[in-house]
Structures are given as structure tokens and as C-alpha cells.
């Protein structure tokens, strides 16, 4: 696939690095973080559409993490242990209220994965470091961090 330009409205962008986060909002219908990222990664040039309050030097909030549905609790515990004291890990529900266990009806993506929201309780120092650490955790399939630059 050859894509010259890709345009995307991202949830937040890290000032200075231009690393962005997608998927913080509830997915609608057939949306897929994996598909969105594959298109963005295939593009030669990216254009992120953000409002001024989404372009930040100090990041906070959550990062969506796609995980294998089987043994999801072990993956959630590993992520929580890694960010001990700096983040809470909640499984995203498809209906009802969010919580650590995601209720009786967790989101299942069209690829068959659950989504964990890693909710940072202190400022996120570096999205690049978060990405690197998440990529090392067994059971993590992907996440909502977009970076075209090493």
C-alpha cells in the first residue's frame, strides 16, 4: 500500500516529539486502532488535526492498550506492576461503567482483543518510553501511541 498523506484527528499530541495518542474515546462501530495505525504507519507524511488544548508539553490521562483476551488479567497485572503508583489499569467496558475489571461486558475489538485503559495518575514523562515499555509486556498486541519518527 502506497499512501502519500494520511490525515487523522488524534486525542493528544506530545509537544516537541509529535508523538500522538489515538483511541482514548470509545470506539464507534467498525473503528479499529490496529487498522488506523496501519494506515498511518504506511503513509509517507502524517497530518494530525488537533485543537490547541490537545497539543501539550505535559501529558496526562490514559493510553489505550490492546491485549489478547485470553489471560487478559495477567497482562493487566504486568502493566500495573510496571507503572506501580503512576497508573491504574482498567479493562474498557462495551456497556456500563468502567472499572478495573471492565464489568461483565468488556469491549472486544473486531480483531478479538480487549482494550485496557492505562490511566496515568501522574504526568506522562515520555510517550516514547511508554511505548517502549508496553511493547515488552507479554500479551500486549498494540496500543494507541502513534510515532513515525524513531
TrEMBL record:
- Could you mention a single GO BP entry for this protein? pentose-phosphate shunt, non-oxidative branch
Q: What is this protein's name?
A: Ribose-5-phosphate isomerase
- Reactions performed catalytically: aldehydo-D-ribose 5-phosphate = D-ribulose 5-phosphate
**Domain of life from the UniProt record:** Eukaryota
Q: In which pathway does it act?
A: Carbohydrate degradation
Membrane-crossing segments per the record: none
Extract the InterPro entries matched here.
Ribose-5P_isomerase, Ribose5P_isomerase_type_A
- GO MF annotation: an example: ribose-5-phosphate isomerase activity
Amino acid at each position: 500500500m502506497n499512501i502519500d498523506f494520511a490525515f487523522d484527528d488524534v486525542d493528544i499530541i506530545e509537544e516537541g516529539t509529535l508523538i500522538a495518542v489515538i483511541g482514548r474515546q470509545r470506539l464507534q462501530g467498525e473503528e479499529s486502532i490496529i487498522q488506523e495505525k496501519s494506515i498511518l504507519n504506511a503513509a509517507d507524511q502524517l497530518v494530525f488535526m488537533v485543537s490547541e488544548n490537545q497539543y501539550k508539553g505535559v501529558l496526562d490521562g490514559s493510553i489505550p492498550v490492546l491485549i489478547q483476551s485470553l489471560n487478559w488479567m495477567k497482562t493487566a497485572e504486568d502493566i500495573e506492576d510496571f507503572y506501580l503508583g503512576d497508573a491504574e489499569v482498567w479493562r474498557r467496558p462495551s456497556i456500563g461503567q468502567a472499572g478495573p475489571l471492565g464489568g461483565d461486558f468488556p469491549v472486544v475489538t473486531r480483531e478479538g482483543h480487549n482494550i485496557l485503559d492505562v490511566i496515568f495518575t501522574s504526568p506522562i514523562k515520555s510517550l516514547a518510553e511508554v511505548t517502549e515499555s508496553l511493547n515488552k509486556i507479554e500479551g500486549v498486541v498494540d496500543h494507541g501511541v502513534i510515532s513515525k519518527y524513531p
